[in-house]
Design brief:
The protein has 193 residues and is of the alpha+beta class. The chain has one domain (6-187): Jelly Rolls (Sandwich), CATH 2.60.120.10. Helices cover 27% and strands 34% of the residues. It is built from four helices and twelve strands, in the order αααββββββββββββα. Strands 3, 4, 6, 7, 9, 11 and 12 form a seven-stranded antiparallel sheet that branches. A five-stranded antiparallel sheet has the order 1-2-10-5-8. Strand 1 and strand 2 form a beta hairpin. The protein starts with 5 loop residues before the first helix and ends in a 6-residue tail after the last helix. Fe (ii) ion is lined by residues 79, 81, 129.
Length: 193
């Protein structure tokens, strides 16, 4: 098992963004190499279910690196990022559903892809996806975005009507927190979910 160091990951991604002609591809290779050794990441971060659900490892105009651990039984709204993204899974499972943009601003379902441990997905800046964790396990992932993830204006789409709306981070966080509380109770011996 190799050693994992989050600062080295961030530094490698920053170098790629600053020097590569195709930074998205270069960062994809870095993420692939990193999640190829899930035990090393596990050893370097705290117990997944005790970690905050999102830890910001780097945030700047050119790059955002997030460590995200999200709870079982979650199905999030479709959204865009407006920047490229590379996601690598090192624990659990993440189902990705991709959508086609329609001329009236709505979306329609297109393809889907299930990511398991050691899998990665590379998303272009126009991609619209929703993510779900249908399992009873927490999903652990590294997310690297080619820009400032938190201040870039983004869109999410209603699950029922597929109508666009301004992305509301607080709303998404609330849904995640609710699922996390439920999962933590379910994880506690002697307590019912
Ligand atoms: Fe996303």
């Amino acid at each position: 098992m190799a050693r994992f160091d989050k600062d080295e990951l961030v530094s490698a991604c920053l170098t790629a963004v600053r020097s590569e002609t195709d930074p998205r591809r270069a960062v994809k290779e870095i993420v692939e190499r990193t999640v190829a050794d899930p035990a090393a990441i596990d050893a370097a971060v705290r117990d997944r279910t005790e970690s905050p659900m999102m830890t910001i490892w780097h945030r700047s105009e050119e790059l955002t690196v997030l460590h995200i651990v999200w709870p079982p039984d979650v199905d999030l709204f479709a959204h865009d990022h407006n920047m490229w993204a590379n996601i690598g899974i090192y624990g659990g499972r993440e189902d990705n559903f991709f959508y086609r943009r329609l001329e009236d601003g709505r979306i329609e379902p297109n393809t889907e892809k299930t990511l398991l441990v050691r899998d990665t997905v590379s998303l272009g800046p126009d991609v619209v996806h929703s993510v779900a964790n249908p399992t009873r396990e927490w999903t652990a992932a590294l997310h690297v975005y080619g820009g400032e993830f938190f201040t870039t204006p983004r869109t999410m789409w209603s699950k029922d009507t597929h109508e666009p709306m301004k992305l509301d981070v607080a709303f998404i966080r609330e849904r995640l927190e609710a699922a996390a509380s439920k999962a933590r109770v379910a994880d506690t011996p002697g307590e019912a979910p």
